[in-house]
Amino acid sequence: MTTEPTPPPPFYLYPHPFSLIPFESTWYVSQESLATVHVCHPCHIVRRCHPAGVPIPFYPPLPLLLFLSSSLSLFFSSSPLLVLLFSQYSFSLLFLFLLSRWLGKPRCLVICLFLVLVAIVIMHKHKRVIIKIKNQYIYNDTEYYNAAEYEDEEYEDSNDVKPEVEIPVEWWQKELCRPDVLNLKPSTTYLRLPMLGSDIVPSQNDYNIFLGETACNPRPLYRAWCSVESYAHENPLAKVWFHTTSPVIDNGDGLITNLEEAYENLKVVGTDLTKIFNGTPCEKIFMAGKWAHNTPWPANNVSNLLRNVLLWLWGGLNSDTDCICVRNLTHIRNMVSYDEEGKVANNAIMHFDAGHQFAFELMAYLKKNFKIATWKVNGPGAATEVAKKLCKNKDLNEVYLHQCDSVELRPLREMQLLRWPLWKKFFHDDKGEHFSKNHPDAYIVHLYNKLSKKTPIKIGSKGIYDAIAKEHCPITYDAAKRRSYFF
Hints:
The protein is an alpha/beta fold. It contains 19 helices and 18 strands.
């Protein structure tokens, strides 16, 4: 007589936590027959049983599918936003996936790491976005915003919109602008601006404030707009001019319209460099075009030439766009910011009346000493040397203490706040809550963009930059907040 085998004890197999089968469901071994063991799903609607020994169908983990799809979309998708949508979910789930017991297989770990490495190399090679902060991008080799940033917004241009008359391209724009910028046409998104120097001319009787964008960027960063707004906000009786070398400027989010409606004293304009330099001591340097060749700083070269010409022609205050105005300064005239410790006069922030001798001497100095590849000579170096010449004293600290008829040297605590080696203090969290009380003498805060441009500023961090931006450029701050968590 044959004895039947003793049935094995019941045992359970649980599905992989990231398979397509619901997590709460349980696989179990059926004991319907001692001869045949089945592996079944308990759900009555989807009842799948397989004879023992037959492999259970393998469901690829969901995060792995998403990760692979996002990698492939880098090549086949024209929308970086779609790529990032896939990437955000895939990397989040992939992180959980790596923590699961499936990682116990070394082969799986090697495959995942290899895929991550391949994706990073491909994105870097094709200059794709490496880091995305909501709708703002940090590129691996440029400061420009991504043109696709606005693709998913309601204000995207329609194909039915008929563009305006094509804008003629100047020779100097070909030196400063990228080809894709020169191909932009005026439309509902890209505005054609009146040209400073030809279409519109400042009055010498006004307190003019000039801020320039000479890198031909049609999409200035929020930090630049914050700088522009702060001057208009704090100096309602001044005329604030934001001039750009780009043929058009992006108003896709309506920020320019909102700013000009809120501040009647603000003008956003293009720059007719040929007209402005005509007849000035810097005309020959500019027209020769050497400032654009064999140098890493063509835009800086133009900026250092242009600011002196603007102040000489129409008078006013020049400021870099990495500065925020925190107090009315229309009573300050004929001055230059001065670093007492470094004994350097900084042309980033200076005011002179129209036709002032200091502005003319700056142009004359650059006419003789202009260096296409040495930034300091054309900027702070020129202002420092001219101050020594006009004040007839090589020790500018003595000039600062006893003053000079030709120019006033305004201290760092007023016009820049901190020296450049301390720039990181502007971005420390919770340091700006009592800014006005702690810095009662400050008119301008200089953020040293050359050093700080890659440092993200978290909105709401209550650092110095966050605090003063919220108070002194409220429209730009709110616009940045709607689109991102960072400046």
